[in-house]
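Why DJ-1/PfpI family protein? Reviewers of the renewal asked for a concrete example.
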Amino acid sequence: MSDTGLQIGFLIFPRMTHLDFAGPWEVLSRLPGATLHVVAKDLAPVEGSGLKVLPTVTLEHCPQLDLICVPGGPGHLEAMEDEAVLHFLRQQEIGCRFLTSVCTGALVLAAAGLLHGFKATTHWASHDRLAAFGAEPEKARVVVDRNRITGGGVTAGIDFALTLLAALQGETFARQVQLGLEYAPEPPFPGAGSPDEAEPAVLEAARAQAADYRARMAEVDARAVKRLSRVTL
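Here is what the prediction returned.
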């Protein structure tokens, strides 16, 4: 299988989680003949976690993409209510072969009405939010449903991109890329990276720390669902 010459775009926004973007970018940049774009509202540096990324093209001047990837991060809440971003995604979706996300980027797709009727995943702490937008939540590192491919939280972006690479260029090539990246995770604290396996005290502390963030998520979700009900897709 060979699928080259693709136009691939990563839609970025302030306060994104960089690994959601950088992990998949590193993997997909190995795709022969592909052109990768960093898409944003304007060409000003986009900051998240203290790092800045320079966009290469604006929403207005972005070509039709074959593949769109939306990363997540705290800034996904603003993106969910940004009409320019949502309009861009809806317009691109018409001619896009693959509509994808990592982490809470799935909620941006959902707010645009683009996950309705599709199985999807996201960060474990936001998994329960998907159903309100008509998506079918599925707990997995990567979920593939037709041309919608979603990755779980942060590090799952690498699994997501390798899965996508195998679909585009074949499993043998994807395995070679995985080897080149030496992607063989051995976390120092096995089990701590999943809410199903984490120690109760650790999980409770994480939930308590995110309480205010969760409350804001609920407010944004309610507005986004209401707004979406008025949009004809």
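The mean pLDDT is 96. This is the kind of structural detail the renewal will allow us to pursue systematically.
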